């Protein structure tokens, strides 16, 4: 938008003799206005001859509306905002010129209001039988001022009532405790500043439970050779479970020592191996591989006989 102030007509003798490059007197660089409020910024202009004022917002020419106007007087240039909204916030540049030259300046308009909602989606970071940890990202727009806190609420899916978990959280993550094991929950998060609380973002439904699976039955143990007296035999099997199961090898009902001069048990994340060297007839018997985690227990058996030479 270009606004002109009266003065001698271009090309006259007075204009050429008296023209002085204009100056702007910008006392404050940032102006604030509440959402729905009114803001009038009047910037003093000094210069001789006809002055031309040009306003831009975020690099583009200002479009005047019933709520935003620019005007000029012989001694100032004016930006007038009525019923301020977020669209009026931003950086404004002012350029004033006459026949002797031009001068530019900048101001920032901040519209104060409640923030945008937190940036989603809400992430489920960790789950156990009685607590859930969630996280999110800050709002894209803070409302023109510092964010005070987040408000976190929860509800059981069997109810429509939301309960406050925290109204003072300043971090973008929280551990929600004291949940009922096996119940389904949903969480929502608001952002809040001094001008109000945003709308909420809502999490997917999550069940308060241990993230485990019952150990799968191990693969059939495999004996690598026909075993004779003083030879070596190996029994191995694949397995899996969540959390990782405890692996127990038993012989005739008693747990086998994992490391002895002749016996060795080796485990990886998915495989177990039992090795016995220089075996005797006493090393034969009923071998049981047992897997244990919070989901339960599963076992498989293998009988082995040591043959005489």
TrEMBL record:
UniProt signal peptide: none
Superkingdom of origin organism: Eukaryota
Ranges for domain Fibronectin type-III: 117-217
Matching Gene3D superfamilies: Immunoglobulins
Chain segments annotated as coiled-coil in the UniProt record: none
UniProt key word Repeat: yes
Ig-like domain residues: 22-110, 204-305
Alphabetical keyword list: Immunoglobulin domain, Repeat
Classification via SMART domains: FN3, IG
PANTHER family recorded: MICROFIBRIL-ASSOCIATED GLYCOPROTEIN 3, TITIN
Protein name, as recorded: Titin
Lineage: Eukaryota, Metazoa, Chordata, Craniata, Vertebrata
């Amino acid at each position: 938008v270009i606004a002109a102030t009266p003065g001698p007509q271009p090309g006259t003798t007075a204009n050429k003799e008296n023209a002085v490059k204009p100056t702007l007197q910008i006392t404050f660089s940032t102006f604030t206005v509440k959402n729905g409020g009114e803001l009038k910024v009047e910037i003093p202009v000094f210069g001789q001859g006809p002055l031309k004022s040009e306003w831009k917002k975020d690099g583009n020419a200002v479009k005047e509306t019933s709520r935003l106007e620019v005007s000029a007087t012989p001694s100032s240039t004016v930006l007038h905002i009525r019923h301020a909204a977020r669209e009026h916030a931003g950086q404004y540049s002012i350029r004033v010129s006459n026949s002797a030259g031009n001068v530019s300046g900048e101001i920032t308009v901040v519209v104060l209001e409640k923030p945008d909602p937190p940036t989603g989606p809400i992430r489920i970071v960790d789950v156990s039988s009685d607590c859930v940890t969630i996280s999110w990202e800050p709002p894209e727009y803070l409302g023109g001022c510092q964010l005070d806190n987040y408000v976190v609420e929860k509800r059981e899916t069997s109810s429509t009532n939301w309960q406050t978990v925290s109204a003072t959280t300043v971090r973008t993550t929280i551990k929600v405790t004291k949940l009922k094991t096996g119940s389904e929950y949903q969480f929502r998060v608001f952002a809040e500043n001094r001008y109000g609380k945003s709308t909420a973002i809502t999490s997917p439904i999550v069940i308060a439970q241990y993230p485990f699976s019952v150990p799968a039955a191990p693969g059939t143990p495999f004996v690598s050779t026909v075993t004779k007296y003083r030879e070596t035999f190996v029994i191995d099997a694949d397995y899996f479970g969540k959390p990782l199961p405890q692996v127990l090898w038993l012989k005739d009902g008693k747990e086998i020592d994992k490391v002895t001069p002749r016996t060795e048990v080796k485990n990886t994340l998915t495989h177990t191996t039992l090795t016995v060297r220089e075996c005797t007839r006493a090393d034969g018997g009923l071998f049981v591989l047992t897997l244990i985690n919070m989901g339960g227990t599963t076992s498989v058996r293998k009988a082995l006989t040591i043959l005489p030479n």
